[in-house]
Design goal:
five-stranded mixed sheet; extended; 2 helices
Length: 698
């Protein structure tokens, strides 16, 4: 009989590297009693993710920071089979023939070691792998030769990834491996080099000394390594002065890129400076870069009404400008007729040299056409003959007149409500102008005033005249006007307002008589208040209650507070710093004043409450009673306590004072605590709590 048992491991939080499962097989007895075991099978379950495959917590990367440090032995956790391999390194087995532990070779290069550990056998085996990298990170620096004043030495650090040099004096960079050093005096530089991160990485320092001999060698000054061929000539200078220059073996005093032409030119300066430490000449290769040739690809002539045309040039990648504005195309409509200069600048991607060029594009003028003897619209009822004409000025300036076919609005309107007149004219330069005019035939429009009442009181504000359709002209008593001003008339006058509108080619006139009546009589209402704003928005002042406000009412506030002056809302809000006089003039829908209110507002939010700190109840009629002082509060509850916290006096009104007695007897001299709660009259609903102490003196 064969039985197969399958185990499915799961993450259960138990410690690694292994978990043990034990299976016991039992055989039942033939007699009464317990079964007895036949055999036990034990199985170890490994956690692939968390198992430490190499013992002693060896990190994934081992750094050799100095030659004195060797690579530690690598020992696998207990398994059934071990396979080791290396790239760039060598190793020996520690206890052959066992392959569980190896000793890596000590060497001056990087290497990797890979372990493949097999747990179990056959198809049920489990193979885990681990790679350890040995990083040879020993810091090494050079020992540069001595230099003369003004010369440069190269500092070299190697073996690590990150470097920091100090001091920065004379260095071309402070965080590179090979900075150039140009100190003015002998200087010792310290480099701090790191590899990896703590605690497993490397960090150490080394020093490099640059010895400077106080004897300057020849040096070029002001001579670049390369120039563009169109650059200006550069005078040749060097230190110490007094020597001789030559370019390509020919004596020279200046470097002229235009004269020398493109290519590399060798510049040499010779000056004997004495001694044997420094050279007596210096050379430098200077490159002269040629400019890219420019070829434009653009039409030479274009009509002013032509669509935008692209601009291209070879080599591509440059910038086009017209009138110092960057462009990518020429839009003829943006420029006056005549020549337009297109400038192009392109930079060579290799040398950085810039070449410029220009070309001219002629914007050709258009013939101009203008309609005469024809309107935009006519009434359908007009029985007239209309003969449209065009005044033409050719592109060369020659004038002419063209007469088109006639039409009769009363007849043409029987076919359509409009006609479209078109004409195309080509000038002597080949440019064409097309002109179109739409002539409408309409019914006489209906016009009327939109905001003018039948009457206004003599004190009403000026009324801006409006009518529909808009666009006509207004007259008051025959004079052009934009407003009706009632105050210009006397009570009982009648103003005649006229609106004249020209629409659909027809002229209509509307007249309206407006009566000027007696103004309203009212008495301004004054109100004085001491208030505290209930919210951050402020204390509301109403011109009229909402229930009394009617459509068309307008409001104008006048205030001693500039921020509130000129407001037109029905309700305005007064903040804590806006005490003063605020008045509002109320007008009805006809702009006639009907009422005025004046509010004298004082903002007060702080309630006055004061309790003396001492009193002397000794019956001398001087300060014998403890009184509460203040105003603008209600619902008072004032309580005095003795030293043991017992209530000895309570008052519900500020008029109630304490005479210094407790249960009819004199309270001893001393300090008594008190508490008070009350509600502010200025801020209804706000409860204020206070406490303090009083001294009873006898």
């Amino acid at each position: 009989t064969t039985a197969v048992f399958k185990l499915r491991p799961k993450v259960d939080g138990l410690p690694e590297p292994t978990e043990n499962v034990k299976l016991t097989l039992f055989k039942p007895t033939c007699k009464d009693g317990a079964d007895f075991p036949i055999t036990n099978i034990s199985v170890d379950i490994l956690d692939r993710e968390n198992l430490a495959l190499i013992e002693n917590n060896v990190p994934n990367t081992v750094f050799r920071c100095t030659d004195a440090v060797s690579v530690p032995n690598l020992r696998s956790t207990l398994a059934d089979k071990y396979e080791w391999e290396t790239v760039g390194g060598a190793f020996t087995y520690v206890s052959p023939p066992s392959t569980r532990e190896i000793k890596p070779a000590t060497q001056t290069t990087d290497a990797t070691y890979k372990l493949k550990a097999t747990f179990g056998t056959g198809t049920e085996s489990c193979v885990l792998e681990k790679t350890i990298t040995v990083n040879y990170a020993v810091l090494r620096v050079n020992n540069p030769d001595a230099i003369c004043t003004g010369q440069t030495a190269t500092l070299i650090a190697e073996g690590r990834t990150n470097y920091t040099w100090t001091p920065a004096t004379g260095l071309s960079c402070t965080n590179c491996a090979t900075p150039s050093a140009n100190p003015t005096a002998t200087t010792t530089y310290t480099v701090t080099a790191t590899e990896g991160t703590a605690p497993d990485g490397c960090s150490s320092t080394a020093q490099v000394t640059v010895t400077v001999v106080n004897q300057p060698g020849p040096q070029f000054t002001g001579l670049a390594s390369q120039y563009c061929i169109n650059d200006a000539a550069v005078p040749l200078n060097a230190t110490p002065a007094g020597g001789s220059f030559e370019i390509n073996g020919i004596p020279a005093t200046q470097f002229n890129p235009t004269t020398l032409g493109g290519g590399t030119h060798k510049v040499k300066y010779v000056k004997t400076v004495g001694g044997t430490t420094c050279a007596d000449f210096v050379t430098k290769d200077v490159l002269v870069n040629t400019l890219p040739a420019i070829t434009f690809i653009v039409a030479p002539n274009v009509c002013k009404n032509a669509p935008a045309i692209p601009i291209t040039a070879n080599p591509a990648g440059g910038t086009f400008k017209i009138n110092n504005q960057t462009v990518t195309e020429i839009n003829p409509s943006l420029y006056p007729a005549g020549d337009v200069t297109v400038n192009y600048a392109v930079t060579d991607i290799n040398s950085g040299c810039v070449n410029t060029g220009s070309t001219t594009v002629a914007i050709m003028p258009l013939p101009t056409l203008a309609w005469v003897d024809v309107n935009d619209a006519y009434c359908k009822t007009e029985n007239i003959t209309v003969t449209p004409k065009l005044n033409v000025v050719d592109s060369d300036g020659t004038p002419s007149t063209i007469t088109l076919a006639s039409f009769n609005p009363s007849l043409a309107s029987l076919i359509s409500n409009k006609i479209t007149l078109n004409y195309s004219f080509t000038g002597t330069n080949g440019c064409n102008t097309v002109i179109t005019k739409e002539v409408n035939f309409g019914e006489p429009p209906t016009a009327d005033f939109t905001n003018l009442l039948d009457e206004y009181c003599q004190q009403a504000l000026p009324v801006t005249l409006t009518a529909a359709p808009a666009g006509g002209e207004f007259f008051v008593d025959g004079l052009p006007a934009t407003q009706l001003i009632p105050q210009d008339f006397q009570v009982g006058d009648v103003a005649t307002v006229t609106y004249v509108y020209n629409g659909n080619g027809c002229i209509v006139q509307v007249d309206k008589e407006v009566d000027i009546i007696q103004p309203n009589v009212y008495t301004p209402k004054e109100e004085t208040k001491q208030v505290c704003p209930p919210t951050a928005q402020g204390y509301p002042l109403e011109a009229v209650p909402l229930s009394q406000s009617q459509a068309g009412y307008t409001y104008l506030w006048t205030s001693t507070v500039p921020a509130l002056n000129g407001l037109t809302a029905r309700v305005i809000y007064i903040k804590e710093d806006q005490s003063g006089e605020h008045s509002v003039l109320i007008r009805d829908a006809g702009n006639c004043p009907i009422d005025e209110k004046i509010f004298d507002i004082t903002i007060k939010c702080n309630t006055a409450f004061f309790v003396p700190t001492a009193f002397t109840p000794n019956t001398d009629n001087k300060n014998d009673m403890l009184q509460i002082f203040g105003a603008d509060f209600t619902k008072l509850r004032f309580t005095i306590f003795n030293r043991w916290g017992e209530v000895i006096f309570t008052a519900r009104d500020k008029k109630e004072g304490w005479d210094g007695k407790v249960k009819g007897g004199a309270a001893p001299a001393g300090v008594y605590q008190w508490t008070a709660t009350y509600e502010s009259v200025l801020q209804p609903g706000k409860v204020i709590e206070k406490k303090g102490a009083i001294t009873l003196i006898r």
